[in-house]
UniProtKB/TrEMBL annotation, chain A:
Residues 119-232 form the Glycosyltransferase subfamily 4-like N-terminal domain. The keyword Metal-binding does not apply. It comes from Pilimelia terevasa. GO terms for molecular function: glycosyltransferase activity. Signal peptide: none annotated. This is Glycosyltransferase subfamily 4-like N-terminal domain-containing protein. Keywords: Glycosyltransferase, Transferase. Pfam families: Glyco_trans_1_4, Glyco_transf_4. InterPro entries: Glyco_trans_4-like_N.
UniProtKB/TrEMBL annotation, chain B:
It comes from Pilimelia terevasa. This is Uncharacterized protein.
Amino acid sequence: MSVARRLLFLGFFLPPSRASGVYRTRALANRFAAQGWEVTALAAPLGFLRDTVGSVDDSLLATLDPRVRVLRPALDTYAWEKDLRAFGWLRRSRPRLSRRRYEWLGNLGFPEHYASWGRACVRVGLRLHRRRPFDAVLATGNPYAAFAAAWGLHRLRGLPYAVDFRDSWTLDQFGDAARYPAGHPAVRWERRIMGRAAAAVFVNEPTRQWYADRYPAAADRTLVVPNGWDPDLLDLGAVGDDPAPAGRPLRLGFLGTLTDRMPLAALAAAFRLARRSPELAGATLDLYGHLGFQQTGQPVLREALGLPEGADTSADGALRYLGPVAKTAVADVYAASDVLVFLAGGSRYVTSGKVFEYMAAGRPVVSVHAPGIAAEDVLAGYPLWFRADSLAPEALAAAMRAAADAARTAGPGPRAAAREWAARYQRDRLLTPLVDRLAAVGDARAAAR
Amino acid sequence: MNVVFLSFAPDPPELVRAAVRRHLDAGARVLLVSTSTGPWRDLADRPGLTIRHVRTDPAGSGGVSGALAGGLRRLGLRAARTHALALLADRAARDALPARIDVIMAADGLAAQYGYVLARRHPRALATADYHRALPSAGGSGAASPTSAGP
């Protein structure tokens, strides 16, 4: 009888977190468990998720494989504590000293507020490893304290580890440049971690290449695992295959968090221009999701979109802000939209997780982003993709008109072909190279013992 | 909505000023207790805003307390300094404090002690160091889903 490989998985945003990183984190744990690994996951403390940041979706708990054993090491919540009544004597009386204590004793200089959780992971990992050794460690970031913990376990016990960059750490993927100056603690830590990682995983090829250039000695240990979409979380049964009926105006839909990094003004101008043509007469652009990450930024976003303060429909009725959507209702948005607007900010390093779900819905997708971003590599084979060569309103409007035409004319055939293209991006399938890599690394270590 | 906004070290001042302005825009009556006057000049005429200046120099603060605060600082008794600052702030704000306070916002670490004192006196008030957050009547915490980035 073969003995199951044992994985220590460091994934802060496991369910019931509802942070954007939860889907990839959940999928990684599930996939290794399904592959026969004995998975012990170290995740965020429940008190932090529920009380400190209040970012919880309990329904996601049921989607975590029951074979995954979850432990939740402690986190110092100093940086998140805002309730004045909860401030202790030191913090009230010696605020600077209190902060320094947190930064140096709590974080030990690690440039992240999650450092104490990373240290707790090392302690828990060592204890568990002493009882029954692990074969490998997989850390997904952010938080990048998970990477540091994996590195620490490697240094202390020789455990091989892989790091999964859900986001780029020292690369500003929106600014297309290094995020920190040379010598910054984050740069030093990343170099250290990349130097000893058995594998480093990135969400797209441009990001992998950036890291391979930065750390040439580690280049042959880098690989790409795109984000993909999760069939078990997206019931597309209600999304039909028929073209939009001729009797009603079209509905274009965007789903996601609207931010000032997105070309919102270009989107609004292009849509108003496109709306003058017969294909899009009376059409609406429905915006679903949060309007920025903070209320403070909302006026700027509203202004860019032409949405009056306090109103959720523009004066001309073209744009409608319809608010956040529960994960369980996402498929309804896709069903209600004749064309999906893929709106993204950033540079060639940006893929956006939403593009995979968009394709899975089999709807015409019109791109509104700077040409050349990484998402184009994914969309390039999608038969119902429409794009412009620039962000000029005229060019975008032409793409919107073409997408509108497809919404009226594309029948079940092209839509099935579109879904077939999307099927290759089911997240579970995309994880195979990483699972294989860690299995090889773990087995090599076992053979060497 | 009665808001007491404490700013003893407005840094960066533009963020603190924007927060005060936002609360005024939301229709709150704001009592701003501050150790400096400079950052608030362009807000001084706003309806709903009352400013109380905490004088930390001995001459301006009526002598004993201000001298005490300065002396404690020079002696290295910084912990006592924050408590002395709270006493000075209370003296400066006393006549303007509303009977019912709904929100207490401390915009910096130095203001936390006085925020704590006020919070003890007004147990029903929301007492927070998160001065960017929207007021309760404006519809919640002001933050969209916290993302993996953290603060």
